[in-house]
Design a protein that fits this description.
The protein is of the alpha/beta class and 156 residues long. It has a single domain, classed as Immunoglobulin-like (Sandwich). The protein is built from two helices and eight strands; from the N terminus they run αββββαββββ. The strands form two sheets. A five-stranded mixed beta sheet has the order 2-8-7-4-5, with no helix packed on it. The protein is globular, with a radius of gyration of 22 Å. The chain starts with 7 loop residues before the first helix and ends with a strand.
Amino acid sequence: MIRKLPSKPLLAALVALALGAGAALAADAAPRVVKVKGLDTMQYDVKTINAKPGEKLTIQLTAVSSMPKEQMSHNWVLMAKGAPIDQFVMDAAMARDKGYIPDSGKKHILAMTKMAGGGETVEVTFEVPKEAGEYLYLCTFPGHYMAGMKGKLIVK
């Protein structure tokens, strides 16, 4: 049995359709970007982020400060449910040489950025936890969490 190949115009149309579908899938997979500012008042300008389970997010953190980086820096750290936050924050304050991320607390981190000084932007892309609920995010620079530099990722 001899099978006839599709005509060139039909073949071109099929290829274009397949490429278009691939582009649509790639666009669907692009993460949603959430822009957050870390301020000299030791606060994030975004206190709540709503997300769907399994959604891809990119957090872009920009530090807004005129102070030197050594005196005022910010990061964005998403913590697992049930993490010992107070102990983590105390350990973080002692981990200057590790970007204020203690080795003992890494197992409790779901996503994090590096530290950003005034005018710098850092980012992290991650998959939102599949389990619905509230997840705390915070800054680990010494004193910032205690001053209220935290927020909630609400997954529903």
